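Aim 2 progress update. The chain analyzed this quarter is reproduced below.
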Amino acid sequence: MNKSLIDAAMGRIPADLVLKNGVIADVFTGRFIPCDVLIKDGYICGLGEYDCENSIDVSGKFILPGLIDAHVHIESSMVTPPQYAKAAVPHGVTTVIADPHEITNVCGETGLEFMKKSAEGLPLDIKYMLPSCVPAAPFEHAGAALTAEDTRRMADGYFGIGEMMNYPGVIGGDDETLGKLVSGKTIDGHAPGLAGRRLDAYINAGIKTDHECSEIFEMLEKIGKGMYIALREGTLSKDLGRLVYGVNPYTFRRCMLCTDDRSVSEILKDGTIDYMIRSAVRLGVDPMMAISMGTVCAAECYGLKDRGAIAPGYIADLIIIDTPHDFNIEAVFKNGVKAAENGKALFDVPECDISSVTGTVHLPRLTADDFAHEQPDEFTAISLVPDSIITKKTAARRGDALSKLCVIERHRGGGNKGFGYVTNYGIKNGAVASSVGHDSHNVAVIGDNDADMASAVNALGKNGGICIVSGGEVKAKLELEIAGLMTERGAEYVSSAHDALMREARALGVTESVDPFLSLAFLPLPVIPEIRVTDSGLFDVEAFSFI
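Predicted structure tokens:
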């Protein structure tokens, strides 16, 4: 209890700030109410008519709770937590539920400590979940492994347990997998396509959320069985446009919004949860429902009783917008202090000590001969699905116009290589290599000739990143010196470098419906249907075995 909030509400002591003449979004009753908002010690202490020496007139504007991203991998933005905050806070995000399993797969506990340390002192609350799947599945070689014993030892230092991707291990009753689902912690799920008794078994393990729904019937079954569903709109996985039609006055309280994997370039251009709310309203969702999914629904799911709404005793995480339909954010307050205005962050970010998480790519120099791989006469190839991380198995024959994919173990220099062929990536006269390869983050390279594939991998160096080569010449490169996943440079630099990479990829014919880099990055992930390539070979996700 904070007695100063009581005294400020009663006028016995002065408040710190009042937002005058605005209209609040009351997510508890579904009303928009003309109201002043009184703030003391970073908390809301009064709603009604108030005066204060420090007053901001917001006449004609709407005051909303700060936005909550219900599931995000900050590493996928390719910038550090401080730089991520600088990009996301101006878009109204004041809290994120973050799973740092990307860097953990590379650097283990050292990576976790880096993420926690670099998040200190930011005007963004980062609630870190402890990764449950390092590696994602036992069919690839990661840079680290967290056991059930490790998870139980570390759990108290984290907000909850990160997404459990090894759903076959859960429903099969594997003791090691179940041992990571620590009792008393909120446990995030990852269960694409899981239904019926298999879904029942998965939920019985204590798993509360899922962000992998791609169809309404799947979403409704999971909500009906007590789960919270995070509607996702990442850079590659765009599920919001389908799932919003399952949002109604009954289901919306079990729906949240998340970005999962979103590049900083897209954050700067379009936003994050604010973009999703605008999109949902444009697609016909009631504005108050859309606002609730981006605020109070996530707060209730994760037991965040001090945020997600505008009410006495709640943290003064607030955003000022023009209208609920246009949703243009004019100001953002974090703990009662203005943190952003008109799209610009009003805070500086500290530098991070990155010395413990660099130089993580361990590969010998490769030649074209290292990528020699003879195609059989007939084989199973990978078909990319537009705007999705899901892939499809497809029959192929030698001589078909395919892109060669190779995934190379890069953590211990073992040199394992897995090969596959992709039907509609489309690259001609070049190759793309990346040290971002979910979730073990081995090096993935795709191209139409072995020489450029070797050159692209070699150009990544010890720090890694993304590189495009054509005719033996590096056409564009973004170094990601932190675990081969992030850079300490600012969001604007990363966005500019990403745009240059995109131009070169399109110039080499990469299909317009394919994200050249994220599509490649997800091709090694052996827990997303239907077919993947790990450093150990071509993998059938549905059979959970190698082809």
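The mean pLDDT is 95. The first strand starts at residue 17 and ends at 26. These observations will guide the mutagenesis experiments scheduled for the next reporting period.
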